[in-house]
Write a structure and sequence with these properties.
The protein is α+β, with helices and mostly antiparallel strands. Helices cover about 35% and strands about 20% of the residues. The longest helix has 21 residues, at about 300-320. It is globular, with a radius of gyration of 22 Å.
Length: about 575
C-alpha cells in the first residue's frame, strides 16, 4: 500500500507543480485599514478585527493565529517569530522577540544536523503563543476570545486546501508521513490532501480554545504543557516542563537605521534587521537610479550582490544571541563601517572569485572594542516562514514574521500542535557565535520591518524565505525608495540572491538574458529560476501615500495570499 501511495504521489506532483506560479495578484487600496498576509482567510481575520473596532495589534494577532491554522506548513503554535509595532499617535516603536529557546538539556541530546532535522530532537521551546499574547495584552483592545475566534473556527470547521499548501504537502511527503499524528492531519486515506479538499484540525482547535480562555498560562503551564512534553519525549526529544514554564517572550525596541531620508525600524538581534540596515547603509554610497534597475543593469545587480555577500559574511561572523555573545551592533550599523565595506567592492568583476571566500570585516573598530576572531560554517540551505503586515486607520502598524523552521518544522505533531525544528538554525562548531548552548536563542533571518517618513508610517513589509529574506528585503526597499515603484510592482519584480556559502547567483528569469550573460562574464555562476519562484520568499507589503494617506497593499504572487483594505 505504501509503495502504491508513493507511485500515485509522483503522478500527482506534475498537476500541482505546473500551476504554482499562477497565483493571482491582489493589489488594493484603502483609508481605514490594510492587511497583507499569505492566505485570504488570515487577511480576512485581520480585517474582521479592524472593522470590529480593533487596532492594528488586534488585527495582527488575529491574523497570526489564523495563519498558523490555514498555512500550517509555515508557522503555528509550535513555532516562533518576531514583530515590530509602531504606535503612530505616541510615535513609539516596540519589538517583541518570540523566537524559541533551546532546552535546558539541548546540549545533552546529541542532535545531528541533517540526520535529526525531522525528529523531536530538533524541537526547541516554541514562542508563538507567548509573543502573540504579550502583544495583545500590552497593546490590544478587543477581547482575546474575539481575536482568536477566526483561528478556532477555521481549525474546527476546516477550510479548503489551496494550491500552495497542496504542493508543499506533496514536496514534504516523507516528513508528513513520518509521524502518524502529522499524517492524520495532512493525509486522506494515506494520500496527500489535494487542492480543494477540506483540512480539519479538531485537536488544534481544542488547544486554541484553551489559549483563548487561559492565555499563555494555558499553553506553557499545566496539563497541556505536560502533554506536549510527554509526547515530545516519547519521540526522543528532550524538552522539559521547566523549559515550557520558564519561557518568556521579550519586549525591547526595534533596531533603527536610516536610508535616503527614511527611518528604518526593524527586528533586533539575533534576528536579522541588523543585516538589512548594514546593506542599505552600504548602498547609500552608490547611485542606484543612475546605474539602472538590477533587472536591466548587470552593474547594479553585481554591486547589490557583492553587498549581500559582505553583509552575510559579517552576519555569520558576529550575529548571535546577545545573552551569550557580544554583538558589535553599533559598528555593524554605522555609516562609516558601511563605507569601508562598500569601498572594498570590485565594481567590475566578482572578487574574490568565489562567494565563500568573502572576508568579514572588523566593525569593532567603529565602537572601540577588541576583536575576537571566530570561524564560519554553513547555515541551513532552506526554510519556511510566513509574514503579515497590518496598518489601521490611526496609522498604527505591525510587521510580523513567524516560522516553524523548515517546511512543516520537525514534522512532529503532539496534542494537535505541529512543532518547530529550530535547532537546525544553530551552529555546531563550538567557536561560532551561533553555537548551540542550553537556553539560547538561535540566529534567524526573519526581518519584519516598518519604514517611516517624517515620523509617519511609509511602508510595512517582511518576507519568508530563510537566508533569502535579507536580500529580498533589500530589493523591496530599493524598488520602492530608489526606483519609485508602487508596492505591487516592487513585489512582483524579479529577485536574485547570493551569500557567502553559495556557489551560485540565483536569479529569476525576469532578470534580462543580456544582464545574466554579462554577469557570467563578470565571474558569477548564474542559476535561473523560470517565472517567479517560491524560493525567493513571499513578501507582504503595505505603503502609505504621504500626501493622501491612502494605504496600498500587495500580497506576493509567489504565495497564495491576499491584501485587503477598506
Amino acid at each position: 500500500m505504501r509503495k502504491s501511495t508513493f507511485n500515485l504521489i509522483i503522478l500527482l506532483a506534475f498537476v500541482i507543480n505546473t500551476g504554482i506560479n499562477a497565483q493571482p495578484v491582489y493589489p488594493t487600496t484603502g483609508k481605514n485599514g490594510m492587511v497583507a498576509t499569505a492566505h485570504p482567510l488570515a487577511s480576512s481575520a485581520a480585517i474582521e478585527m479592524l472593522q470590529g473596532g480593533g487596532n492594528a495589534v488586534d488585527a495582527a494577532v488575529a491574523a497570526a493565529f489564523a495563519i498558523g491554522v490555514v498555512e500550517p506548513d509555515g508557522s503555528g503554535l509550535g513555532g516562533g517569530g518576531g514583530m515590530v509595532i509602531y504606535l503612530n499617535d505616541e510615535k513609539q516603536s516596540y519589538f517583541i522577540n518570540y523566537y524559541g529557546r533551546s532546552s535546558e538539556r539541548a546540549t545533552e541530546a546529541g542532535f545531528r544536523y541533517g540526520h535529526d532535522n525531522s525528529t523531536a530532537l530538533a524541537i526547541e521551546v516554541p514562542g508563538t503563543v507567548a509573543g502573540l499574547i504579550m502583544a495583545h495584552e500590552t497593546f490590544g483592545t478587543l477581547p482575546l476570545k474575539q481575536v482568536m475566534e477566526p483561528a478556532i473556527r477555521h481549525a474546527e470547521e476546516g477550510f479548503p486546501v489551496d494550491q500552495t499548501l497542496a504542493k508543499l504537502i506533496l514536496d514534504n511527503i516523507e516528513k508528513v508521513m513520518g509521524d502518524s499524528a502529522t499524517g492524520s492531519v495532512f493525509l486522506n486515506d494515506g494520500f496527500p490532501l489535494m487542492e480543494g479538499e477540506i483540512l480539519v484540525q479538531k485537536d488544534l482547535g481544542r488547544v486554541l480554545r484553551i489559549i483563548a480562555e487561559e492565555g499563555s498560562k494555558g499553553f506553557y503551564d499545566g496539563a497541556l504543557a505536560k502533554s506536549f512534553v510527554d509526547g515530545i519525549r516519547a519521540r526522543g526529544g528532550v524538552l522539559t516542563e521547566k523549559d515550557f514554564l520558564s519561557y518568556k517572550a521579550e519586549m525591547t525596541v526595534p533596531l533603527k537605521g536610516t536610508y535616503r531620508g527614511y527611518d528604518i525600524l526593524t527586528a533586533n538581534i539575533p534576528q536579522s534587521g541588523i543585516s538589512l540596515i548594514q546593506g542599505l547603509n552600504m548602498l547609500e554610497n552608490f547611485d542606484l537610479r543612475a546605474s539602472g534597475h538590477y533587472s536591466e543593469s548587470a552593474r547594479t545587480l553585481h554591486i547589490m550582490a557583492e553587498v549581500d555577500k559582505l553583509i552575510y559574511a559579517d552576519r555569520y561572523q558576529y550575529l548571535g544571541d546577545p545573552d551569550f555573545v557580544d554583538v558589535p551592533v553599533a559598528g555593524l550599523t554605522s555609516k562609516e563601517y558601511a563605507l569601508e565595506r562598500f569601498s572594498s567592492i570590485n565594481q567590475s568583476k566578482l572578487d574574490p572569485p568565489r562567494y565563500r571566500d568573502a572576508e568579514y570585516g572588523n566593525p569593532r573598530v567603529f565602537q572601540q572594542k577588541k576583536e575576537k576572531i571566530l570561524v564560519h560554517e554553513m547555515e541551513p540551505a532552506d526554510g519556511h516562514t510566513t509574514h503579515l503586515s497590518v496598518i489601521d486607520k490611526n496609522g498604527n502598524a505591525v510587521a510580523l514574521t513567524q516560522t516553524l523552521g523548515l517546511f512543516f518544522g520537525s514534522g512532529q505533531t503532539v496534542s494537535g500542535v505541529l512543532f518547530n525544528n529550530a535547532l537546525t538554525n544553530f551552529s555546531y562548531n563550538s567557536e561560532n557565535v551561533n553555537y548551540l548552548q542550553n537556553g539560547k536563542r538561535c540566529r534567524t533571518s526573519i526581518t519584519p520591518t516598518i519604514i517611516l517618513k517624517d515620523g509617519n508610517p511609509f511602508m510595512v513589509l517582511g518576507s519568508p524565505g530563510a537566508g533569502r529574506i535579507i536580500s529580498t528585503m533589500i530589493e523591496l526597499v530599493v524598488n520602492v525608495i530608489d526606483f519609485g515603484m508602487d508596492v505591487n510592482d516592487a513585489n512582483i519584480a524579479p529577485r536574485f540572491y547570493c551569500q557567502k556559502f553559495e556557489d551560485y547567483l540565483h536569479v529569476e528569469s525576469g532578470i534580462k538574458p543580456e544582464v545574466r550573460a554579462e554577469l557570467e562574464l563578470m565571474g558569477h555562476q548564474v542559476k535561473v529560476y523560470e517565472g517567479i519562484d517560491l524560493f525567493f520568499g513571499g513578501a507582504q507589503m503595505i505603503s502609505v501615500d504621504p500626501l493622501t494617506g491612502v494605504f496600498s497593499g500587495s500580497a506576493d504572487k509567489r504565495r497564495g495570499g491576499i491584501a485587503i483594505g477598506y
